[in-house]
């Protein structure tokens, strides 16, 4: 049964859980996130991923250890980095015999590496794994134009001098302009911000609500740093020991003074500013995953289990749904599979691509009509208790190096869950939701150990 | 951090120029490398007591080339002057002047080691005078030695044999390249506790040691030295130093613990980490320290409090947690890094010197407490050490500071680390409450 192409929750059962092992989060490590053009301008993806790995190795004493598998990825990736993760492993203090693979699913890359590796651990294929992600908006690849590329390839194939000259004569000045990367969606030409502006307007999210969410993100992240929360989650890099984007002294009043940058031509009042949108960011994160047996044998902590994950995608191309609204569909499917409601979640980690993304997502789940017709539910999915949302800050304050965000969230959430322990006689439970380019989204549930 | 002057005067024209102008002529010191011999050359054991005989026998057991009588013109690696049965000052003459005849045969980087008894426990004034005389003798002799040779002494409490574990342990330390920058110093052996290692290259095998301030400088050198000696390491430094800490941890196969030691729960977190991750905790090296120099007239509250807080108050709190812990009971060892500033004072460092003198006080007072648990606590007081910190001292000041000791050069971070590694080992189990200076016999405040 399906509603508008989206499968209805609860229509398939999870695999028999009794057959599977648990995949546990041992801990994580990331480098502080830097604003693009900032402290990591001269750092490559490989440099940053290696640094994040080395910090993780030092924290958990994994020198010369052969890890089952390492998976990581980057969204903005040079073609030479085809083996980015394996190269980072070789440059790290891990055993050179540690296999690695790259994965790419836009901003969901980091979370997807966690889920894929956790599944391998659950199946008994591997006992330990490191998931991760990295992105540099500063050291982004720049491609040559299509015209120049075709000429160069033909030139290589030309055998005679006259043929080579003939090929070269096709070159025009405009072919020499480089092809810089952009965040535009290939099928719509709209940037991610412009897409979100459509969604933000559709769900009537106010400027004040967005600024308040951004303010809370900065306040919560600053408080977490002051409390030492990141002491065992982060290793300094290139002079940074905190996220460079963090503004501990910001206020709703200051945020209210910023000029809108997205949705200025929508007719409606533009509400999205640089303050309630994530900036381009550089950074890397890693998460150490293991079977319970491996963690015990290595005297390592067990913070949380990776319970399950779900991916969804939406048809944003024809305007049916907003570009970043796929998690709206993924979460109810995942909750239904585990007979859970939003009320059963103790920590919500909803990636703040834009404040408008988070607020549109929450609004959709509170909308009876939408939940009935589009999600196939009996009524509204429900409300997210704001006191449980992104309690130690999220991407608006920390920044968002695309592929590194998943690892940041999973490691922090696992630590929070472990600290909380039991809630009403059951393990504390956390929900991760990450939207991604291409109208995709990946969500996951973790439980405290 | 290299001393270009040493290289200049070590050979060729530089050596001649320095000699003619009467300039200092420091030499490259003999330092321990795994597998290197304990001493380069025969060892002369001078003295005619039973203690001298048994000590010579013990050295023979280590397959060393031991002499009871000097052969004139034969180069000696070391002279051990055993003076364990002095009754009157006149008793010094024979053994001392006999040894004196061999001084010119001492090889470069040779060793003079006295073995005598503590004056404080002497039964009568004449004995005390004789025993205390060794102090002045050794310190002066150390200043007369040249070419990297050092003189150090071992003081035995009454009843401690010249072959007790820690007497032999201290003897090995002073003979070896591990004590390269220790000169003109005494170590007191107060008990027969401790034991020599099964493997002299891995004296810390099986021990779990915590090093604070391990991200760089002396702390990183301590980590490397303890790792070389077989210890499993927990490395602690403030979160902001985490990248350097991780690099050191990965080098020495330890675990990095990003922790500000001035947090009130630091002791418990260190214990929890060591026990959870490595199953035990045997040794804590209090190395973390900061300087906030200012003349006292210009001192502000923040500079004063931060130095006292990190350098001594934090150690006190951590030690309280350690001594209260059931996990710190198997021959536990604590070694604190003090400073010669805490011994002799230093202009502009009232806060730092107060904190480091405080460390010396706490070490002495903690000795009986940790002794009840079968453990020991000692301090090491570095003099001028070539680190990133001292490299920032202006050139002229640095040059003067470097040469103002008997070895006419700055020490290396590894020299401090070697002294700490020795005091952290079971071979030093009979030594506690001591302050060992690693200063090349600094002329100031000696």
UniProtKB/TrEMBL annotation, chain A:
<dbReference type="InterPro" id="IPR020616">
    <property type="entry name" value="Thiolase_N"/>
</dbReference>
<dbReference type="InterPro" id="IPR002155">
    <property type="entry name" value="Thiolase"/>
</dbReference>
<feature type="region of interest" description="Disordered">
    <location>
        <begin position="172"/>
        <end position="195"/>
    </location>
</feature>
<protein>
    <submittedName>
        <fullName>3-ketoacyl-CoA thiolase</fullName>
    </submittedName>
</protein>
<dbReference type="GO" id="GO:0016747">
    <property type="term" value="F:acyltransferase activity, transferring groups other than amino-acyl groups"/>
</dbReference>
<keyword id="KW-0012">Acyltransferase</keyword>
<dbReference type="InterPro" id="IPR050521">
    <property type="entry name" value="3-ketoacyl-CoA_Thiolase"/>
</dbReference>
<feature type="active site" description="Proton acceptor">
    <location>
        <position position="435"/>
    </location>
</feature>
<dbReference type="GO" id="GO:0005829">
    <property type="term" value="C:cytosol"/>
</dbReference>
<feature type="domain" description="Thiolase C-terminal">
    <location>
        <begin position="320"/>
        <end position="447"/>
    </location>
</feature>
<feature type="active site" description="Proton acceptor">
    <location>
        <position position="400"/>
    </location>
</feature>
<dbReference type="InterPro" id="IPR020617">
    <property type="entry name" value="Thiolase_C"/>
</dbReference>
<dbReference type="InterPro" id="IPR016039">
    <property type="entry name" value="Thiolase-like"/>
</dbReference>
<dbReference type="Pfam" id="PF00108">
    <property type="entry name" value="Thiolase_N"/>
</dbReference>
<feature type="active site" description="Acyl-thioester intermediate">
    <location>
        <position position="107"/>
    </location>
</feature>
<comment type="similarity">
    <text>Belongs to the thiolase-like superfamily. Thiolase family.</text>
</comment>
<keyword id="KW-0808">Transferase</keyword>
<dbReference type="Pfam" id="PF02803">
    <property type="entry name" value="Thiolase_C"/>
</dbReference>
<feature type="domain" description="Thiolase N-terminal">
    <location>
        <begin position="24"/>
        <end position="293"/>
    </location>
</feature>
From TrEMBL, chain B:
<protein>
    <submittedName>
        <fullName>3-oxoacyl-[acyl-carrier protein] reductase</fullName>
    </submittedName>
</protein>
<dbReference type="InterPro" id="IPR036291">
    <property type="entry name" value="NAD(P)-bd_dom_sf"/>
</dbReference>
<comment type="similarity">
    <text>Belongs to the short-chain dehydrogenases/reductases (SDR) family.</text>
</comment>
<dbReference type="Pfam" id="PF13561">
    <property type="entry name" value="adh_short_C2"/>
</dbReference>
<dbReference type="GO" id="GO:0016616">
    <property type="term" value="F:oxidoreductase activity, acting on the CH-OH group of donors, NAD or NADP as acceptor"/>
</dbReference>
<dbReference type="InterPro" id="IPR002347">
    <property type="entry name" value="SDR_fam"/>
</dbReference>
<dbReference type="InterPro" id="IPR057326">
    <property type="entry name" value="KR_dom"/>
</dbReference>
<dbReference type="InterPro" id="IPR020904">
    <property type="entry name" value="Sc_DH/Rdtase_CS"/>
</dbReference>
<feature type="domain" description="Ketoreductase">
    <location>
        <begin position="207"/>
        <end position="383"/>
    </location>
</feature>
């Amino acid at each position: 049964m399906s509603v508008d192409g989206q499968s209805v929750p609860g229509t398939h059962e999870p695999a028999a859980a009794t057959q599977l092992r648990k995949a546990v989060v041992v801990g994580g490590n990331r480098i502080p996130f830097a604003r693009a053009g900032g402290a990591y301008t001269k750092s490559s993806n490989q440099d940053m991923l290696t640094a994040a790995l080395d910090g993780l190795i030092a924290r958990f004493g994994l020198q010369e250890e052969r890890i089952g598998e390492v998976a990581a990825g980057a969204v903005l990736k040079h073609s030479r980095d085809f083996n980015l993760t394996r190269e980072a492993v070789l440059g790290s203090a891990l055993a050179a015999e540690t296999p690695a693979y790259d994965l790419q699913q836009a901003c969901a890359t980091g979370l997807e590496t966690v889920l894929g590796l956790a599944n391998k651990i659950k199946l008994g294929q591997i006992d330990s794994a490191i998931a991760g992600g990295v992105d540099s908006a500063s050291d982004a690849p720049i491609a040559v134009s299509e015209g120049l590329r075709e000429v160069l390839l033909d030139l290589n194939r030309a055998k005679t001098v006259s043929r080579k000259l003939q090929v070269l004569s096709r070159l025009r000045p405009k072919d020499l302009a480089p092809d810089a990367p952009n965040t535009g969606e290939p099928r719509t030409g709209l940037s991610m911000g412009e897409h979100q502006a459509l969604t933000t307007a559709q769900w009537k999210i106010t400027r004040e609500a967005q600024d308040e969410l951004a303010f809370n993100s900065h306040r919560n992240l600053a408080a977490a740093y002051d409390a030492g929360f990141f002491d065992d989650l982060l290793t300094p890099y290139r002079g940074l020991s905190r996220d460079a984007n963090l503004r501990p002294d910001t206020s709703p009043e200051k945020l209210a003074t910023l000029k809108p940058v997205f949705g200025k031509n929508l007719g409606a009042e533009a509400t999205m500013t640089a303050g309630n949108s994530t900036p381009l960011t550089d950074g890397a994160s890693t998460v150490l995953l293991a079977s319970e047996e491996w963690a015990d044998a290595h005297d390592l902590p067990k913070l949380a289990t990776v319970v399950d994950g779900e991916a969804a995608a939406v048809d944003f191309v024809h305007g049916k749904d907003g570009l970043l609204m796929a998690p709206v569909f993924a979460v109810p499917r995942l909750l239904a599979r585990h007979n859970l409601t939003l009320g059963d979640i103790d920590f919500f980690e909803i990636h703040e691509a834009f404040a408008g993304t988070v607020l549109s997502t929450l609004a959709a789940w509170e909308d009876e009509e939408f939940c009935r017709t589009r999600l196939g539910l009996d009524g509204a999915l429900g409300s997210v208790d704001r006191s449980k949302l992104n309690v130690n800050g999220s991407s608006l304050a920390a920044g968002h190096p695309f592929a590194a965000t998943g690892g940041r969230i999973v490691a922090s959430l696992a630590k929070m869950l472990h600290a909380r322990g039991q809630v009403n006689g059951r393990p504390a439970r956390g929900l991760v939701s990450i939207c991604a380019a291409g109208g995709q989204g990946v969500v996951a549930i973790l439980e405290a150990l | 951090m290299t001393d270009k002057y040493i290289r200049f005067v070590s050979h060729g024209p530089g050596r001649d120029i320095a000699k003619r102008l009467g300039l200092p002529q420091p030499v490259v010191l003999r330092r321990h490398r795994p597998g290197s011999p304990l001493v380069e050359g025969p060892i002369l054991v001078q003295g005619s007591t039973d203690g001298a005989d048994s000590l010579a026998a013990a050295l023979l057991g280590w397959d060393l080339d031991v002499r009871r009588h000097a052969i004139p013109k034969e180069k000696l690696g070391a002279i051990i002057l055993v003076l364990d049965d002095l009754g009157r000052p006149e008793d010094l003459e024979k053994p001392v002047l006999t040894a004196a005849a061999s001084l010119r045969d001492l090889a470069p980087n040779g060793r003079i080691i006295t073995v005598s008894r503590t004056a404080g426990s002497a039964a009568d004034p004449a004995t005390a005078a004789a025993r205390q005389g060794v102090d002045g003798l050794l310190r002066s002799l150390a200043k007369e030695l040249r070419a990297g040779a050092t003189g150090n002494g071992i003081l035995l409490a009454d009843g401690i044999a010249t072959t007790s574990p820690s007497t032999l342990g201290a003897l090995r330390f002073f003979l070896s390249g591990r004590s390269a920058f220790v000169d003109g110093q005494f170590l007191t052996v107060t008990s027969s506790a401790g034991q020599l290692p099964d493997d002299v290259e891995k004296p810390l095998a099986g021990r779990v040691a915590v090093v604070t301030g391990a991200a760089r400088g002396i702390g990183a050198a301590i980590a490397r030295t303890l790792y070389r000696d077989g210890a499993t390491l927990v490395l602690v430094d403030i979160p902001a130093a985490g990248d350097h800490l991780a690099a050191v941890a990965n080098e020495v196969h330890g675990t990095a613990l990003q922790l500000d030691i001035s947090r009130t729960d630091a002791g418990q977190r260190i214990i929890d980490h060591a026990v959870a991750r490595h199953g035990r905790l045997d040794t804590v090296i209090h190395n973390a320290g900061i300087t906030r120099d200012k003349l006292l007239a210009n001192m502000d509250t923040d500079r004063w409090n931060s130095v006292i807080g990190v350098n001594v108050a934090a150690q006190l709190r951590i030690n309280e947690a350690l001594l209260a812990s059931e996990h710190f009971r198997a021959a536990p060892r604590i070694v604190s890094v003090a400073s010669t500033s805490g011994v002799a004072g230093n202009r502009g460092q009232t806060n730092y010197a107060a904190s480091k003198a405080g460390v010396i006080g706490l070490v002495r007072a903690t000795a009986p407490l940790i002794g009840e648990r079968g453990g020991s606590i000692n301090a090491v007081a570095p003099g001028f050490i070539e680190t990133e910190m001292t490299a920032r001292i202006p050139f002229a000041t640095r040059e003067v500071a470097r040469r103002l000791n008997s070895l006419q050069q700055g020490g290396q971070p590894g020299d401090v680390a070697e002294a700490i590694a020795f005091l952290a080992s079971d071979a030093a189990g009979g030594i506690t409450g001591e302050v060992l200076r690693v200063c090349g016999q600094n002329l100031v405040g000696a």
